[in-house]
Specification:
It is built from eleven helices and 43 strands. The chain is mainly beta. Strand 16 and strand 17 form a beta hairpin.
Length: 702
Amino acid sequence: MACSDDLYMPSSSTAEGQPLRFEVTVIDQPQTRGAVLDVYDNYVTRDFKAGDSFGMFIIDDNNQFVSTIDGENAKNLKLTTPDGKAWNLNSDIKEVVHKLGYKYVAYYPYSSEFDKCSSIADIQDRLTAPADDQSAQAAIDWMYTEPTPPGVNAVTILKFKHRYAKIDIYHSFTQGHQGDWTSAYKYTKTKDANNVEHYRYILNAPTDKTLKVKGKYTIGNYLTGIKEFSYDCNDITIANGRHAIVYTYGMDERCAVDLGLPSGIRWSPINLGTETATYMEDNELAEVAANKLGKRLAWGELFEKDSYSYETYIDPPYQSGTPLLPADISGTEYDPVTQYWGGHWSLPNTDDIQEFIDNTYIVSTETISNSEIGKDIIRLTIRSKINDNEITMLTNGIVNNRSVVNNLHMHYLSANRSDNNNCSYLNYNNSLKSASYSRYVGYSVRPVLKELFTYPDADKKDIILRHIDKLAVDLGITKTVTENGQQVTYKLLWSPFNYGVESKVELHTYNQKPIDEDYYISNCTKNPGMRLAWGDIKEPDDFFNNKLNYPNSEIGKKYPVIIPDNANNKDARDLKPEDDIVQRNWPAGWYIPTANDFELLKANTIITKETIDGHNWFRLTGKNGYEGNSILIPATGYIDNAANTIKWGADTFLQSCTIGPSGTEHKQYAFNITSSGVGSLAPGAGRATGLMIRPVKYVRVK
């Protein structure tokens, strides 16, 4: 089993074949359109995670399982992935060498219970029903492959398919609800950080079965009144190997328009109240967006009325005293979008509206007749300045008492009360602007979709580690050292960002859609990263107390004040590997730089100052043929004796792994770039001082 990218000729003892490398994919067969949505359209994929394992059997040219190879067991071979991508053989057999006539069959997840299998039928028989607890992927659904012939170039792709039918139901109504489906099928219920309920079903359906999802929910409270609504998703046909996604929302989140806005917020293509009972296709969305105005609601109210006035408003008299409703109703029981559409839809707030105005422009306007109000309105085509995506909006006027007025102007409700009397809204009157008007009148509503899922740091770190070797920057710096009496030269490569950026860069997705990893990494390059004391492997909550306790801490005692052998050696790697946070957590070859590494950096680059988002940054550009390569280093100052107060914030201070020279052995070398862009090696930075870390990687020059 050749697990690296280096494919090599087999040894003479296995010369009749060549070593194989296995890759895996998962076949998801989506359901039909309608109340059930395609798995691919919902970005539901089966990504293998670090530590996952599958079992594999080898089939010879007589259709029998190969039982031994070189005297070692060859049945139910365990392959494990360290990163979700490469698969390593985890058995006494060191490699699988392909021979003519061989085929391969595999199943997931691995279990020793399959050791005694003697045929493919035995494997299928052991793919038993799922566990009651279906919250963990490995407990949910067995997957297996058909017998697979080898591929070319010693790479064989195993295509896994599901043994059972899988149904994910996203039920997002935040108030009381009930459904007959919760008792009719075995399921696992989870609730995310936004209180969206996820019901997962794994059903054995060798032949087609039909699932119905229906129930009732209520919205409103004592101020708005309480009303009951029904939802019904019929005729969901399932069969083994298929995966269905069922939404009980009023509006599916896939439909949100991505305008590339900096906040990541997406806007609905249609108004509240124009949605249909089932998922809307693109042509339906376009038709509705072109001429449907939808519900008319006063600010904080959930239901339409015959007349919109002071007397009929939820919050009278609002000219004096404290209003009953909060100043921001986004996501509350007074937000009609949250109540009707559920999920993560809400009213836009004033910041969302201003962001929309700042990052879009009107492409065209067209006057059309609208049957809902019996008057002309204007249809606007609005384009993003960022990604050129377009959205349609309609002028709608407002309802005052019983009449629609200002029908050639646009009034889309916001979540914010501008004062006791008025609320904010998105306005068009020859141009887009934010405006304010009475809360009691009837507005149209254009929902927005806010972030659903915040990526955890562990997953963000995984992205960085998978890409970091390819991201290493060559500034043309070499370093020669003595190894075993020989002079050896290394390329000194630099990380494009400081250590620990993943914990500092916000990252959100919608419905856990796979993120744009390149975009995330570009954000990492413009983030300061993690601040640490020398030898610490965890960022302290308070650097002031950390400095006071540092001499008596475990790391402070481990490295005494006087280290004569290393105190004047700028290339000394004084931090032991277990105390070098980069060595601990990044791939092999990455380290905290030595003092000498920083001197080489200074000597081989040109430093220029830049301003990014109002902060000082320094670009270090290579010389002598490497002028096209550079790294950006933020000005971060340092923190020591003032409680979490940054000093010299216009300067850069980067930690080294080298203890200071004679007389300052209780300190460390650090690389300093002054606010004017002058770089130097500072010999006396306190070890307890909070500094940033810029990792380096050594690559041997052949």
